[in-house]
Structures are given as C-alpha cells and as structure tokens.
Design brief:
Layout: H1 3-13, H2 18-23, H3 27-43, H4 48-62, E1 75-80, E2 94-104, E3 107-108, H5 115-131, H6 148-152, H7 155-160, E4 163-170, H8 174-214, H9 221-240, E5 244-245, E6 252-253, H10 256-272, H11 282-323, H12 331-334, H13 339-342, H14 345-356, E7 379-381, E8 387-389, H15 390-398, H16 422-431, H17 433-452
Antiparallel strand pairs: 1-2, 2-3, 2-4, 5-6, 7-8
Helix pairs in contact: 1-11, 3-8, 3-11, 8-11, 8-14, 9-10, 10-11
C-alpha cells in the first residue's frame, strides 16, 4: 500500500479532531508539486542522473576539504533563510540551486552536462556577468579569483589558462512552492501543538489543585486513606513509564505503540490491585478519571505528531530520490519550526505532571535516609544540606566518622540541635504518620538494646 493511502487511513483510524486533520501534512499535494519540480529540472537538463553525478563530485571534494575549491564542486543546494526576520512566524526561506560552471574562453565546458544544459548555464553565466557589470573572460583575461591558479598568484599560469569558475544560480519556481507548502504546514502543526499542550497543562494544574484538596490529611480519615491509595496509583504510573523509560534496556522516548501498551498495563494493574474501590471520596474517583483522560489526550497528540513527522520524512526522501538535491537532512535542521519534527510534546507535559500531580502525593522513596533506607525521622540537615535521620548520625559520630556519606564534607561533628529540620519533621508526621511511628518504635527498640543488651525484649511488663 502506498504511503499516501496509509497516511490518510491513519488519520481516519485514530479519529483525530477535524481541526487536527485540517492541519496535517498535505502529502498528496506535495507529491503533485514534486512532479512539477522534477519536470522543471528535466526541462533545463538537470535531471536526477546529472545532479547525482555532480553530487558525486561534491562528495569527492568534501573528502579533501583542505584542498577543495569551487572548481571541485558540482552544485550547491541551500534553503536560504538569510534576511528573514528572526521574530517572524512562520519562518520563510528561499531555496537556491547554485551550479559551478567551467567557462573556457566564454564557453561552458563540463563533460557531465549535456550540450543543451551547458548552453543554458553558459547563457545564465553571461547574463549574470552583464547584470553585475562584469564580463565573460577571454584568453587574454586573468583567471577568476575562485580558481586554484589565481590563488597562487602565478601570473604565467593565469595568462596561459583562461578557465573561469562561475557560480550560476539556476532560477527555479516549483521548489520554492514545494517548500513553502511544507514549511507552512509544519508551522501550522507547531501552532496546533502549542495550543493543545497549553490545554493539557491547564488541565494538569486544575487536577493538581483538586487532588491536593481531596487528599489533604487534615480533612480526616477518608482523605488519609485516599492519600495512601493515590500513592500506590502513582507508584504504578511511574513503574509503567508510559512515555519515557529510564531503564538501560529501553532508555529514551517510547513509540506510540509502546506508550499504548504501557498505559493499558497501568490501567490493568490498577484494576487488578482493586485500588479504585479503595478510594473513599467521590472527588478522588473524578480525579482518577481526569488523570486517565489527560494521558489519553497526550497519547493522541503524540500519535498525531509521529504520523506527521513520518510524512515529512517520507516526502523529503522522495524529493531527494527524484531530484538528487539532498535536502532530507537539512530541512529539519534549518526550518525554524523544527521543534515539531524533532521533539515530543510528551517530554514537557510529563515534566509538569511530575511537578503538579505526583508532588501533591509525596512518595516515601523521596524521604528515606540514605544510610538506613528507612524514613529520615528525626531529620537532621547538615551544613552541606544533606538530610539524614538523627539515629544514623549518632552512630556515625560515635565511630568518629566526620564526613557526610554523600558529599564527603566534614559536617557530621558540627551538627547540633540547630540542624534539626522541624518543618520537614512536621511534613513527615503529616503525610507519613504510619512510617514515622514505625521509625520511632525502631529507634526506641535499638536504643534499649544498646542500654540493656542485645537480648533485651521491649515487651510490656505483665503481672504474674
């Protein structure tokens, strides 16, 4: 199946909003325009075979950069963005095809070009020289300053060889039309992406506020119970790594197919562990539905971005295949709206979700003591700003260990009551009351064993 049909069916299959479909890359229109570009080049004798031969000259010259000169080059194709206002949106540029023509006594000579093409380029060179006030060289004139002989300053060689290398800009019409269409649609996609991203980010902010109020521990037992459930939900979500993975085996952004699988895994795990029935508040149920909807909307946006990025890659490769001009690598770099071609909106949105949502429900792993890996209570903040539980620091000081285990700064012996982090202690009691109580009991048990011996059992006394 041809890609044009696949592209159209993909847009229909994903049921994107009509506004998105209208902004999609017009692949069929670009193919028709590409035919005009190919026809225009063929009419002046610069078919893909001729340009491929000249491109081989370019590649040979690039392998010897120190000695290459315009005489070694065949042609240069640039998407010229010079003179464009840096603040203009969308950015515009003018494609420029420059051919290096060898003139001897005013006559174009190049074995790689057909006679008609040589005549055409020779006429362009003469017209350009007349327009700039110059003249086509004769046997008595010196070499152009772009030739190697002229750069040596050897006058004898200059008078014995009347070869002139002229840069001739070939006037083309339809390549500008092609890239104008492509650039406009890429820019439209970026505008759409920014609008949809702003909507999702606002939804995330709203959801964060709603969730923060719903699971505020001071609201009572049901809020505390929901806080524990949400902590498990977000642990599952982080384990799912829906859009990005930090594991060595599959590090980086996920494809849309992988993201779909991971999102489905997350939802299945929530159902399997029966977390939703454990939510006591209706606001928590609503928040979960909104959370899933945000991820679904983000996934749709990533799909749309991926489909259009593939369309741009395909049409640029087809452009190179039919013209041999080599723009498939330069367009995404030089185009001002290249962000929609090279990056994923999921990266920004996921970062905001971590800030606005997951931070509302503190995770225990973020508040563990780096030494004992239990909750860092009572928390002591050293002068190097690293936080440990007081029990571990007491043990280290008894062993005369002076340096912070994380940064090796000489701070342990300098710690005193002023290093006790009262705000952090209150935060831990508020959001992790169960873990704090367990830590306090563990500290007491360990302290009693130090006083009464390792066999001491801190059971309550009983009357016989």
């Amino acid at each position: 199946m041809k890609f044009a049909q696949e592209f159209r069916k993909a847009l229909e299959r994903e049921a994107f909003p009509q506004k998105w479909v209208d902004c999609a890359i017009p692949y069929g229109q670009l193919k028709k325009c590409l035919k005009k570009v190919t026809k225009e080049l063929n009419e002046i004798g610069l078919d893909k075979e001729t340009l491929a031969n000249l491109a081989a000259e370019n590649q040979s010259a690039n392998t010897n950069v120190n000695t290459s000169s315009p005489a070694d080059l065949g042609f240069k194709y640039q998407l010229d963005a010079s003179g464009i206002d840096a603040g203009a949106e969308p950015a515009r540029f003018r494609p420029r095809l420059t051919v290096f023509v060898r003139l001897e006594d005013g006559v174009a000579v190049d074995a790689k070009l057909s006679p008609s093409t040589r005549d055409f380029l020779q006429k362009l060179a003469i017209d350009n020289a007349a327009a700039t006030g110059g003249s086509v060289p004769s046997p008595s004139t010196e070499l152009s300053s772009t030739t190697p002989a002229a750069s040596t300053g050897d006058g004898e060689n200059a008078t014995s060889n009347a070869t002139d290398i002229r840069q001739v800009e070939v006037p083309l019409v339809f390549d500008a039309e092609f890239f104008g269409i492509l650039q406009t649609d890429v820019s439209n996609i970026e505008v759409l992406q920014k609008e949809e991203q702003a909507k999702i980010e606002q939804q995330i902010v709203t959801l964060g506020e709603q969730l923060g109020k719903a699971v505020e521990p001071s609201r009572g037992r049901r809020a505390k119970a929901d806080l524990d459930v949400w902590r498990q939900i977000f642990e599952l979500y982080l384990d799912a790594r829906v859009f990005f993975s930090s594991r060595e085996s599959d590090h980086g952004a996920r494809s849309t197919a992988q993201a779909v699988d991971q999102l489905q895994w997350f939802q299945a795990q929530v159902v399997q562990r029966k977390l939703l029935p454990k939510l006591k508040l209706s606001a928590s149920h609503t928040a979960f539905d909104n959370f899933v909807n945000i991820n679904t909307a983000l996934l749709s946006m990533v799909k749309f971005q991926e489909i259009n990025r593939t369309a741009v890659t395909k049409i640029l490769k087809k452009f190179d295949k039919r013209t041999s001009l080599g723009v498939s690598t330069t367009f995404p770099v030089i185009v001002k709206s290249g962000r929609s071609l090279t990056t994923s909106v999921a990266q920004d949105v996921c970062a905001q979700m971590s800030t606005e949502l997951i931070a509302v429900v503190p995770q225990l792993d973020d508040y563990l003591c780096p030494i004992c890996f239990a909750i860092a209570y009572w928390p002591v903040r050293l002068h190097c700003q690293h936080v440990f539980c007081s029990r571990c620091l007491v043990k280290m000081s008894r062993k005369d260990e002076r340096h912070c285990p994380l940064c090796r700064a000489d701070t342990i012996m300098l710690a005193g009551m002023e290093n006790f982090d009262a705000d952090r202690a209150a935060f831990l009691r508020k959001y992790f009351p169960k873990e704090v109580k367990e830590k306090v009991r563990a500290n007491e048990r360990e302290r009693n064993q130090e006083i009464f011996g390792p066999t001491h059992n801190s059971m309550l006394c009983c009357m016989m």
